[in-house]
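Morning F.,

Quick status update on the modeling queue. The single chain you submitted on Monday has been processed. Sequence for confirmation:
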Amino acid sequence: MKKIITLLLLCFLRIISTEAQTTGQMNGHIIDEKQIPVMYAVVSLFRAADTIQVKSAITTEKGEFKFVNLSEGIYFIAVEWVGYVKKLNGPFTLNPEQQLLSIPQIVILPETKQLNTVSIVGQKPLIERKSNLLIMNVANSTLAAGSTALEILSKAPGVSIDNDGNISLRGKPGVNVMIDGKLTFLSAAQLASLLRTTDANSIQTIEFMTNPSAKYDAAGTGGLINIKLKKNTNYGTNGTLTAGGGYGSYYKSNAGVTLNHRSKNINLFGNYNFSGNKEYEDMNINRSTSSFNETTYFDQQGRDLYLRKNNSYKAGIDYYLGDKNIIGFAMSGYANRTDANNNINTLVSSRPPVIDSTVTATNAGKIKYTSQTYNLNYKAVLDTAGQELNADIDYSRFNNDNSVIYTNNFYNAAGELTKLPFIFRNGTPSRVKILAGKVDYVYPVNPKMKVETGIKSSYVSTDNDFRSENFDGADWVNDLTQSNRFTYKEQVNAVYANLHREFKSTTLQFGLRAELTHSEGNSVTLQNIVKRNYLDLFPSLSIQQSLSKDHEISFSYSSRINRPDYQSLNPFIYFTDLYTFSKGNPQLRPEYANSFELSYGYKKTTNVTFGYIHTKDVMTTTLLTDTVKKTLLIFEQNLAERSTVSMNINRPLAITSWWHTNNDATLYYSRFSSPDLLGAPFKNGKLTFMMNTTHNFTLNHTMNAELSANYQSAQVFGTYIARPIYGADLGISKSFADKKATVKLSASDLFNTRKIVVKSSIPFQDYNLSQKQESRIFRLTFSYNFGSSSIKAVRERSNSSEVEQNRVKSGN
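Structure tokens below.
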């Protein structure tokens, strides 16, 4: 590793030394028809001889741009800005006598088709590919109306979500999710709950990164998914109102408002969203346990009913300290409540189909989740060449309270009560605090090379006080054998450097990230403390080679880590019913992965990618049978390793001028192995095929339709195998009132086929589990845009605690 680092530094210094030379230079200034400087317009420089683009730049707040290190020759300049006519300027000549050229002031004009000075532009496709980034333009999707972020994500190309909420991307588990560039630090189940409360109407795009650079946190062995929420880009006061309803087996409702006020120096923004949904989930478990030549069979049938009321909000201010400095403050949070009623019948038998006894359980739960996040940020543009400094500090706190009363009744084969009901309750209050800060710096050595570097530090503390009480017929009595308090502290300090270099037809990026981790888990009740201290290095590399105008190949590599979420380390027992429960594992270790990808692109449309990832100490959810107690334990533990080989093909296609489609197919083989699982070696592997196709139909200038379908063949998840799952979605939208108002009608899981069914892949372990959530839902959504629509650039922001927040337990 030391030799590799030394070699990278020598290459870095060599590249800098060879680039320290200058030639010709051009600079200019762009204004609109009102003589106002045009900020953040795209300016492209083309050679007149072959029309090949040489450079590109973004205008400053003053509308200025600059091109340096230019060779002698004749050039044209193209200017593009949203809502304005693309303008071509030139020719301009650089020669030995004229090496510094000031371009006359360029004026751009709005397009002729406008709506209150907003141009009518073409709609982006649902799926886009940029470099090594796959982008899903959710804001353009009719199917997003009234849906949740989890529903949209589950239908994304190459994405699969198992019954525990674990996300895989192209067959690679361990995917970390960011919201606006910030990690959430949630467990899989908590993240699924958070995404279920996030209104898809508030999402702009979803970005999929399989091999992120060293700039990003190393968390996420399967890659990163970044959900970018909508941001208003207009001057003046404006906003959007949204309201909708739906029905599947029960009602759905949602409403929201977004407000924005922007002037020259101040930008005020805020939003509020509410959803109220009633929904069900059916779960069936068929299993058997054998001990001492005796086999007991269990047939568990349950229906969970949830009444969810979710409230989320965000507000903030950006203040522009001149043209190059911005300071901002934002706060966000949610207040969610769920009332749950779970009814489970467990049929016990020694020789099916004869029933020996029955246990009926009625579990009533009340769940409250609240969070607040505060962010202070600063951005400084240090010069026109692109030198930039960004700083963020965040404080977040999460309060999760879950209280469930379990009432169990016991019957014999004749349906008669055999003993008094067993009633107990569990309370699981959880408190999480996160403090994080980061500084990022970008230094452009020249127009073809830049260096990115930064530091980050995060501190997380959690306190989980699990309380179990039994009802004796008159009072609640504390059960000390089941109660437990668990605290956890973790500090991660990180530093990174990233070099981006463009050659004539090659783009090179390599980086290195170092993360120092200190953690301490304390099972207070059990008097057990687990401390860990470790330093890790995470190199990354990306090479893109243009073979010709239509052909491009690229290679990428990254080393990454997945740390256990805080709740998975907590050793307390959480009951689903008397025979099914989950338990944390304080000895759970982080998993490490090395990921490689080789891609070929044709005409910026068709893309073929081959991938390989190897993960050691892979964290896997296992379902273990206790043959003595005859119970099923859901338990997180480390297997030895996982290897996945994959091939992905993505192909958009314009069938007609009004019918466009995008098709994404992935074929992968994933294999898990461990030298010792339940006292024996374990191996589990399977070839899996995934297909996603979306079709967009332009019916007329105000009406669009969208059809989406996906299929996923059987696949392995650690110690179990999942059956195929498939479904189709349909939607149609109609705009009116000069396109300020839109009505969208959608139907998700049109044929009601999406159902998760898994079985054990551990020899001599017998269970089959099926989960069917309410998935066929018809929704009607209305949205209205009001206020000013004079478009100006929006500020991108990201906080410093996103990774830590992803590992917090939160819900709906």
